[in-house]
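Work package 3, deliverable 3.1, input record:
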Amino acid sequence: MKRILTGVAAAALIAAGAAQAEGVKVGMITTLSGGGAGLGIDVRDGFQLALKMAGDAGAAVDLVVEDDQQKPDVAVQLADKMIQAEQVDVLTGIIWSNLAMAVVPAATAQGKFYLSPNAGPSALAGANCHPNYFNVAWQNDNLHEAAGAYANSAGFTNSFILAPNYPAGTDALAGYKRFYEGALAGEVYTQLGQTDYAGEIAQIRASGADSVFFFLPGGMGIAFMKQYAESGVDIPLVGPAFSFDQGILQAVGAAALGVKNTSQWSKDLDNAANQAFVAAFQEEYGRLPSLYASQGYDTANLLLSAMAKADVADQDAFRAALEEADFASTRGDFAFNSNHHPIQDIYVREVIQEGDVFTNKVIGVALEDRGDAYADQCNM
Amino acid sequence: MSALLVAEQVLNGLQYGMMLFLMAAGLTLVFGVMGLINLAHGALYMTGAFACAAVAAATGSFWLGLAASLAAAASAGALVELAVIRRLYARDHLDQVLATFALILVFSETTRWLFGSFPLYLSLPEALSGAVDLPGGLVYPAFRLAIIGIGFAVAVFLFWLIGRTRLGIRIRAGEADREMIAALGVDIGRLYTLVFALGAALAGLAGALVGTIQSVQVGMGEPVLILAFVVIVIGGIGSIRGALVGALVVGMTDTLGKAFLPQLFALAMEPSAARAVGSALASMLIYILMAAVLIVRPQGLFGARA
């Protein structure tokens, strides 16, 4: 232990001794292995694409990327290392809300900026909001609120709802119920990272529901969708875009066709920033971007917009520059609420097939200029 | 709570139990016959799953993939036995745990290096995709029924092999007295390699079957390994019958507990609290069961030695 500490101290000295390059040092902690890897890889690739497209301005960002393996303890260690040894100015990248809850409060308390490209737990949007914490994606509840609003308009009155038992899962079901007006045929929390859903599917079959709302991001969603398709249950599915993102659709295939899902972003949104992003992403990586990629891309562009206006060493000026959100978002209109969470439109998408690729297309708007339910509780 | 729901959950428990049996059978043979604690059994499970995924993707045939999973896991098992495990029989359990834990890391990193960190997904074979109608209006996925069938077939095969063949007699003799059977002219080294490869092949088969309905990824074996140890502790170390009964008991307890305990508590408590207490208790259930078995019968349900 002592030897490790000495090593860390030596590394810190070396890092401190090295001449600080001009620009901003960014530490990205994200999930690059295991069932949640698809999300982290997309966030990282979107972020790096934006830096590359920005040319010299992007080159001023010194980016360090590390894999948190979707484990809170690993994420905390990485954050400590990045803050103390590598002396980053800005942290970003965390996908999972339980990891965000473990890292973000400590990082912002140490005077670092945290720009969230994904996780937006309710606790950080409300009473525990922080001036240095910005969420570029959404507050966790948002897409689920939109799904609830969509379920009403689709005439569903008896939903079976399920989500993993972690902060984003409880936020998801709370969000759905906030707007959904019908009855609940069942409400189930699964284990985070669960890969067998036979028991839950049996409950769905027996529940007599007219719709199933589920929030299962990454590998969980793939396993659930595949098993649901094989089970012979044909109750319509409703979900947030996380349950039908580009990665999940490729693995699930035709079983998802026609399913409605809600998202703040879609690859067919008609604005110049988005068209440039989708084309460049396909060119660079040879695959379609997911909403996670768009969030990583927007996060990098927000950072670049603030860097153009202020020096990160001047925290107040840099924070003010971030608050302006003066960048061209792939989502079109984008502004920060008083709690540093987005105000944006949330769309309804449908899963379609283009050639041999499964993807989403926008069919309507579920919620316009939606902020979140927790902004009132935030006093900064 | 309808009878159909209960019946479907019982089938789910049966399917889960059969999957655990395939894992536990190999583990209990190796532990019983050779006295070896093999933590790398989960790595062989993963090897089978990846072999199936790779061959199925390359050839387009799930059945070739399944055959490849057996072959790959068995040969990986034989190789590991010859290269590493062989040196551990005389050592104590701590050395075995350390060495086989190292094997987990070696297998995981090699697999990550070959296939990447991103999970692979298999398509079900045409003949077994979709759901089938069972008597009484029950609808159940065909592939899960097939897993139950394969599990029973493997159980019958193992009972025959251990109880009715010359090889089985040698395995049982090796379990009872290693020196004596060697003195009688049986090549004990080759016997051990064979048993280890057999156990590995069963783990590989389990990995391929489970990987097909869930996902194939690095580290998929370790959670199952823990449960397989629970199974052989409950069933009795070295006993195939114990592994079968233990696996079915654990599979049923876990599935039915998760499905019905929260509802049971909801009769007496408010729904959200009942759900929390019920799910927490459900995930503890198999360990409580194991503790209870250890108190009443420390050698396990079918274990010969105390």
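The longest strand of chain B covers residues 131-134.
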